[in-house]
Amino acid sequence: MKRIFKKKILITVLAVTIFLTGTAFKNDFFEIAKQLEIFTTLFKELNMNYVDETNPGDLMDAAIKNMLNDLDPYTTFLNEQDVETARINNTGDYTGIGARVQIKKDKLIIVEPYKGYPADKAGLKAGDEIVKIGNINVADFKENASDLIKGASGSTAEIKYLRQGKPYTTTITREEVQIKAVPHFSMVDKSIGYIVLSKFNSKASKETIEALRELKADGAEKIILDLRGNPGGLLREAVNVTNIFVPKGQLVVTTKSKVSKYNKTYYTNRDPVDLEIPLAVLIDGSSASASEIVSGALQDLDRAVVIGAKSFGKGLVQRPKQLSYGTQLKITISRYYTPSGRCIQSLDYWNRDESGKAVKIKKYNEFKTKNGRKVFDGGGVSPDLELASSKKGAITKALLGENLIFDYATKYYYANDINDINTFKFSDADFKDFKNYLNKSGFKFETKTEKALISAYKTAKEEEIHSSIESDYNELLKNLESYKGKVIDEQKDQLSSLLTNEIVKRYAYREGLYQYYTLFNPEIKTASEILKNPIKYNGYLN
Fold first, then answer.
1. CA separation for the pair 439, 281 (Å, rounded)
2. Looking at the predicted structure, is the pLDDT value of residue 24 above 60?
3. Whole-number Å distance between alpha carbons of 384 and 530
4. Predicted confidence (pLDDT) at residue 426 exceeds the cutoff of 90
5. Neighbours of 117 (CB within 10 A)
6. CB contact at 8 A, 149 and 122
7. pLDDT tens across 388-403, in order?
8. The CATH number of the domain where 156 resides is what?
9. More confident residue, 134 or 197
10. C-alpha angle with apex 235: 233 to 239, nearest 5 degrees?
């Protein structure tokens, strides 16, 4: 096998070198050919002569990932399994157990079972930890553990899992799973329709149109389009969704690149469904990419009032490039610009700070909407009305990142019975219990100020002047700890809302959560109030 591998490497080196050097002078690729030849000869020598056995696949995977790390996080290498995952995200169809899962260290956690799908039928619930699938222990599986739950439609798997520390066993029969781009639409009241658009897969515009038409048939005279948490997807579908509400032939987005063939303008090419219906769009810090194309275009064209919190700020466009053996390179090819000329990109990956982190773009340029309103680039779409309830503070992000809101909801679910979820309220006593839970969990949150203070004290120790500032340093740390305790109380409304959402999902699935939103969600209530007041609505657009 080693001899065959050596032979393949030599052939590859020769072929690539001939190809590149044959076109080097014409295309100015001599430096690329040189560096590629150096790398392939190094790779050959390393695998032939290293003291222990090497895994060529692992070495190459690490080399590729480290090379791409110096670019942006969206330029990535996709192996065969990654390519299949990308296909699923774009089409919304796959075969599996019908649940959102999370890999946490060597654990496979059920985050959300989809109602009526195999995981739900088998009795799995959010918070369950899958420890064994068939005869394979998840902790011993070195690849992506989520691959273990995939399989052909009709195939079965015995699952061993832990629930609240106790072991259980169930059998799951896999089936085709359809992930809807529009998982929910309903009437908020007699005149306002509500559409949740959760991703921009190939069905996004079709499902949005169907939802809009059904809502209008039910009496909707105004629409709330919810793009909160929508990470984006297909650019063409962003154009098609925008087209639902704006005329044919309208510029929606422009892409600009150093490669001339990627410089494109995207116009609407269909007849709209409704040009007049008052429209409110909800966004937050997790609305990205295609979500920002839609919200940014509708804002620039003064077609909708945008409500919530500033969007994520992803103004970079990727395209998959086919490589050998079924792999792909997803590569950033251009930046996109909204109709007013804004680039929404928030982070500058090509000018990093001393620690190597991308810096936020600080230079903001002013642009004008169709009606002459001021809008700015360089950091996501800023809503026309920013709501405190939509903006996640640093401590909230830390709690979400540590899964403490998710874990507390799991604890709450098994300790409480709720008969009517639409009457559920997360009480002051519940919030107090949550704070006690955080204390027992050992949750530690380090502010930027705290990090800077610790770094300064470390420098002082190196310079041997720390003894003169030690008492002040300890007092500042004590004050910061006191401040962090107060911040949790200051964020009570937002944290209670996030906890409520997670708890409601446990009892009523995601469908029940969206229905709960229409009754109690503050962003939807604000959007409804604006839509019902034509003077206020038009005031935001003019």
1. 38
2. no
3. 12
4. yes
5. 19
6. no
7. 888 888 889 889 999 9
8. 2.30.42.10
9. 197
10. 125
In single-letter form, the type of residue at position 148 comes to L
Give the list of residues 6+ apart from residue 541 with CB closer than 8 angstroms, or none.
Answer: 302, 305, 371, 373
Q: Note whether 121 and 107 are within 8 A (CB).
A: no
Average pLDDT over residues 179-206: 96
Amino acid present at 19: F
Question: If residue 329 lies in a helix (H) or strand (E), which one and from where to where?
Answer: strand 328-337
Number of folded domains that form the chain? 4
CA-CA distance, 254 to 264, in Å (whole number)? Answer: 6
Regarding whether 143 and 42 lie in a shared domain, the answer is no
Residue-number span of the structural domain to which 230 is assigned: 184-392
**511 and 483 in a common domain:** yes
Altogether, the residues listed in the chain come to a count of: 542
* Whether 278 and 357 share a structural domain: yes
Q: Residue 266's closest CA among 297, 295, 310?
A: 297
C-alpha distances out from residue 274 to 207, 223, 502, Å: 15, 11, 35
Same domain flag for 156 and 222: no
Q: Are residues 134 and 27 in the same domain?
A: no
pTM: 0.85
Burial 213-236 (b: 16+ CB within 10 A, else e): eebeeeebebbbbbbbbbbbbbbe
Q: Cite the active site residues.
A: 289, 300, 314
For residues 122 and 169, is the Cβ–Cβ distance under 8 A? no
User: Amino acid identity, residue 178?
Assistant: Q
